[in-house]
Specification:
The chain has about 220 residues and is of the alpha+beta class. The protein folds into 2 domains: about 90 residues; about 120 residues, Cytidine Deaminase, domain 2 (3-Layer(aba) Sandwich). The chain contains 9 helices and 5 strands; from the N terminus they run αααααααββαβαββ.
Length: about 220
């Protein structure tokens, strides 16, 4: 039965407006983005299939158009879903601006959203004020950071341009193990040395894994 023929109190869109988005399940939220179903499946049926196929919100955040469409989602709905995921990531990242990053724990909490959806390695540079509050997060490398020769000077380009007092380097290990590699520690040491010459403090270098993180600057 199409959702439009359901009792109004059970329709996802009407429930969202009446009770708020937090009252809806993942599948119901997706059904709203999908919009309409087919002759044999409602939008909620398609949303439930997509949720199962991708393994929930975490899998959806990492999905590309091919994976979303393989669950029977149309082109327009796929675009809406991927746009919503990206907007959500940007909202989370933007709300971190101004947060304190004066401990590894606080820095990890502020920077973790930048890596939650990634299946490939990436490196970002967090710009900090003198009081170690987050100014901005600058993406620098994407792909296989371990196989890329990190140019130390590029780590400081935006910090110097925007008069940041310090930076935090952060990257992820798609393997899920956040243990810093010898290359991670070598890059950290080179960055710290360059930062001293440039007058920009390298506060930390965080490595993110599967729900965990570690510091490449600390033992």
């Amino acid at each position: 039965m199409p959702i439009r023929e359901w009792p109004e109190a059970t329709r996802p869109r009407e429930r969202l407006l009446a009770r708020g988005a937090g009252a809806l399940s993942d599948a119901e939220l997706l059904a709203i983005l999908i919009g309409t179903g087919t002759r044999v499946r409602s939008a909620l049926d398609i949303a439930q299939a997509l949720t199962r196929a991708l393994g929930g919100p975490r899998g959806l955040a990492r999905a590309d158009p091919v994976r979303v469409r393989s669950a029977g989602v149309g082109v327009a709905a796929t675009a809406r879903i991927l746009a919503a995921c990206e907007l959500g990531r940007r909202v989370v990242a933007d709300t971190a601006a101004g947060e304190r990053c004066d401990t590894p724990e606080l820095a990890a909490r502020a920077l973790a959203p930048h890596f939650a959806h990634l299946e490939r390695e990436a490196l970002v540079v967090a710009l900090l004020s003198r009081s170690h509050r987050l100014i901005a997060v600058v993406p620098l490398y994407s792909g296989n950071v371990a196989g890329t020769s990190v140019r130390i000077g590029e780590l400081f380009t935006e910090a110097i341009r925007r008069n940041a007092a310090g930076i935090i380097l952060a990257h992820n290990h798609p393997s899920g193990d956040p243990s810093p590699s010898p290359d991670d520690r070598r890059t950290t040491a080179d960055a710290v040395a360059a930062g001293r010459l440039l007058g920009v403090e390298v506060v930390d270098h965080l490595v993110f894994g599967a729900g965990r993180w570690a510091s490449a600057r600390r033992p």
